Here is the input.
Amino acid sequence: MQQDIITSIDFGSKKFSATIAVRGKENLDILAVKSCKSIGIEKGMLIDSEKCKANVLNLLSELEIKTGKNVKGIAIGISSNKVRITETTVIVELDEDKVKSHDIIKALKKAQNSITISNDESIVDILINFYILDGKVIHKDILNWKGKRLEINLTLVIAEKKEIQRYYEIFKDTKYNIDSIKLNILAGKQIFLSEKNSMEYIALVDIGAGITEMAVFNNGIPKSVSSIPVGGNNITNDLAICGEFSFLEADNIKKIYSSNYKSLYIDDSLPDETEIGTIKVSRKLFYEVVNARIEEILSHINMKLKNTGHYDRICSIILYGDGINYFEDIGEIIRKIFKIKTQVVRKKDLGIKNPENITSLAIAKEVYDRLNLLEDAIIVPTNKSNDKINEKECLHNIEVENHILKKIKVFFGKIF
Here is the structure.
């Protein structure tokens, strides 16, 4: 990755979002954020690299023109489908009686060698959760602290090789390289978890177009990741079938009608059919179809969270994404399904024009943290064949606020 340019791409089922940022002396400076239609990805899985390639390359080219920057290295964000995590703690003796970047690199190598994975798997990311320096637990930046013995608690992200290889095929024979791979749902920590609200079990739930992803954190440490292949597109499909619309017509109706569909449904002074453009839509049909599917999606999420083994310890759920959150009175439906305190994050809460870009911003922030921790000299490209994952590619979970992420965390600080 270039020394001062950070580029990230969120590979969503509905949108690709890319961010270009500059690593400043004290902050991450966002230069541009842009999104485009997703092609080649279904329910969080990349199924057609060639179809995906054209849109991704065009997106990167537009960002380069807009910012005047030359992009080479990229951090990509992927779904948690066919991905697992495992937690471990490693110990290293400090060579210089103080913590240096090469000590952390040594710990990451040791962690990779300490776990057993199948021949079909690869370690794609390593998260640093906390340190123990000479018996003292430390959560903040530890570089240059004096000591003799360093323990690091880590979370290793493990994915199927064949699934990851498809992402490398997108950039084959181009000037771009994949420098690091992040899980989109784990990047959500950068946005939604703060020092105040992360000192307990918290579930993040991202309901997207084709997939819903979940991560359970305890004290900011990921304990489980999971996904279910349902999202906003399921609502669109139901409307298309029941109303005899095309998918695009149903999706457009959903966007226009969703913000007040309940109010229209209970207003007896209105005729059953309402016009949206040139299309007539039954208020009763829309309400019943949408409510039934939303309740079904939420019930699946609730069951999946129960299967994590952490459900009884979860204190709160943060639910975001554009799959269902823009529907009128969504909070009321959620309270019927979830017995745990749940905060629904809407577009206005994020404070940005295009909320689909929030994950690529979070990924850029993670890369910024990693660069600050491990220093430029040890950042090298990932092996494109993916036979060996670069042991120097980890992210660091220590907070360094920028103006966008800080604004969102202030919002949650008022809630928890």
